[in-house]
Amino acid sequence: xxxxxSQTMGYYKLIxxxxxxxxxxxxxxxxxxxxxxxxxxxxxxxxxxxxxxIKRCDDLLVKLSLIxxxxxxxxxxxxxxxxxxxxxxxxxQLIKERSKASHTYLDEIENDIDKKHQQLIEQSTNMENLxxxxxxxxxxxxxxxxxxxxxxxxxxQPANYVAEGYVNLQGKELDDIKILQGSVxxxxxxxxxNKEDQIRFKRIIFRITKGNAWMNxxxxxxxxxxxxxxxxxxxxxxxxxxxxPGGGGSNVITNKLNKxxxxxxxxxxxxxxxxxxxxxxxxxxxxxxxxxxxxxEMTKNQVEAYLDDFQRIYQNSNCSQLEELKLFLVKEKYxxxxxxxxxxxGSVLYGSIWLPQGADIKVDxxxxxxxxxxxxxxxxxxxxxxxxxxxxxxxxxxxxxxxWGFQEIVNTYGMPRYKEINPGLFTVxxxxxxxxxxxxxxxxxxxxxxxxIYLCVYNKEIKESDSLMKHALIVxxxxxxMGFWAFYNGWIYNDFMSVPxxxxxxxxxxGTVDDPIHKDEQVWVQKDESCVYPFGIDPVWMCVxxxxxxxxxxKMKLAVIIGVIHMTFGIILKGINAIYFxxxxxxxxxxxxxxxxxxxxxxxxxxxxxxxxxxxxxxKTDQAPSVITLMINMILAPAKTVDPPLWGDGQSxxxxxxxxxxxxxxxxxxILLPKPLILNSQNKKHQAQGPNGLADEKKELYQKINEDxxxxxxxxxIHTEQSGGGGHHEEFGDIFVHQVIETIEFVLGSISNTxxxxxxxxxxxxxxxxAEVFFQMCLNGGISGGGFVGAIRxxxxxxxxxxxxxxxxxxxxxxxxxxxxxxxxxxxxxxxFFKADGYAFEKCSYAKVMQDNAVPxxx
Length: 859
What we know:
Residues 707-727 are annotated as: Disordered. This is V-type proton ATPase subunit a. It is found in: Membrane. Pfam families: V_ATPase_I (PF01496). This protein is α+β, with helices and mostly antiparallel strands. The chain folds into three domains: 9-117 and 306-384, no CATH class; 184-271, 2-Layer Sandwich (Alpha-Beta Plaits); 402-685 and 734-832, no CATH class. The protein is 59% helix and 8% strand. It has helices at residues 21-28, 51-73, 84-97, 105-151, 174-179, 198-209, 252-263, 275-311, 321-339, 359-373, 403-413, 423-438, 442-457, 459-464, 476-493, 547-580, 584-614, 627-636, 651-672, 674-707, 713-723, 732-756, 759-785, 787-829, 846-854, and strands at 9-17, 35-37, 186-194, 214-219, 226-227, 233-234, 237-245, 267-269, 343-345, 348-356, 381-384, 508-511, 523-526. Mean pLDDT is 85; it is low at 157-167 and 704-728.
């Protein structure tokens, strides 16, 4: 079972001649079954033999990304690769048909990309310069036209200077200023400024000149000026004219205004002194604009011609040339990265690999194909070898579309040890169920179920569309199962958006009260003592005054029962792991006392809850004992007679509880003491053998693992060393402290973890109460009101009800229940048996790395 435990791994040595290293690695990377072991993880990649090839690939990918940016800028459609395996075969065929060495194809691509990239950069630079020139001409033309409209013809006429001094221009119109032109010399400042800076510019001008200046602006048409540094985005600019008194160009106001223009990066222009020069300048600018537009059009056509080559889909390809080149470079970079994991000695590369059981046959066949397909090239050799060091094999599980999401939940917390039981197998079943317990509602669960069915049925259509739903396709089966269990548990609670459904007919009917004091109270009488509601809770419980009390008690006890069963199963898995690895110390002195302790405490509490449910307390509810009180008295008054008893006279129940308590207390020192003492004794024995004895023992140990890793004592010893639980170099004090921590964590954790499962009750209660509040506040008034006004209230209320239900319950509450189910698996369930200190089997795969890069990045 490759999903219950990791696939069996074999350790091998790979020997490759350097002259055929590219060809051998190219064949091996297509197998998707090899995990390369880095010969020196501390050595930086830049100091490895093939680092230069990786750098070349990175540089070329950067150039292609710039070209891709230009293609998107010019709205060129890029056809992305949907089948990378087809492309891998094309690359292999293309390289095979060449008469040159296989690895030299990278040189050809590099030269081609460099040449086209340089040409594109030159043309893009020319485009940018032409746009800048065009912008300047448009600005200058706008200054002339807008300035004439603002200043008028009178400013073309020279004025006599009479006196220079302070002239208050605040609040004056331009016509009033023209009257003063004969007596006062005016200077002007004309330029172009960004519209967004216009208001700040006006305020600073006013403050600097203290109102002794007149300023006006006019906008330039928004579609004329483009920003060459921001993908030719349109810029809105304005022409401004500042008129101020002053005789020369070196007075104080002029200097201040020039500094302000520099700080705002304002383009300043001079205004012609007479109308003849004005018209001549306007004609000159118009002529240059026409020439610039023609050059821009020609350059744009040349750039698009270059980009069309990258857009084109060539024969025997399934994507654009740009995408094909990018994926080839990704493939080459990945190939040389894997080669860097091998040690180079002379003209030979040596490396270590992990292979799943049976994969060595595929590797041998691939090595023979290298010799067959490339005549004259030596091929590599594969040799079985004992592992080096104490690191165990990697963990590898085969997943599919259904199990992938649940396995990722486990892997996010930690990777299982090699051959350790995989929690992902049980998470597939328990995670959606626990989510359903918290999100239990017939209506809401059905909506989630419909979403899951829609994602599964229309999987292909959604994947090929631009819908946002395609991001949820990867977890569609998880959504389907979560919706199913929420729908199912909704029927158990008989809750349809806070409204019960009387599907099978209630076992109760309205009755009468003989007591005149309580005659107006509604009572329900059981039709028949043998009547039982067939499925779920009788809907009458949603209509009684003690509905909340009853549902709270039921859901709380159900949450505790589910939690204890879930954690007990986790402890049992720990015992199964110990048996598999033949770790009898853990089995006898940890698993057995732990399962007994848990059964005698919280298992006993579950028994009391279920037993109490089976007793008919009709007419004697005051005699029903509280389970919480029984559990408290079990600790504080163990020998005291139980009153009221759950069964018998209370003495037998007290004796049973006392026995359970004594057994549980006796298990604590068994968990604490024997294991560290035995491990300390084993450590002394290993130290007496000396380092040579240890080395020989490890060599034999690894040999056995490689021959058969289906569960051995040696395998368990490796894991013990790795986790620090009894390694050969640990002192007794360290071992004992570790065991003390483990014991305290288990005993106290049993209490806290059981209490943590009450979140199943709390979130179910919160979900039901929120649904009831939304129903009462939004719909109940309209339904009970009736008439035209009631219909209007119902229409408005239903709109609010729908939005609140979708936003709060179908979005926020789904995420909340998901996270709480996640926590119950990570903390409460997995910590009973799951060490999570393994490492993943990372297969060398062209298909995976190319598929990851074939998906276009979101803008």
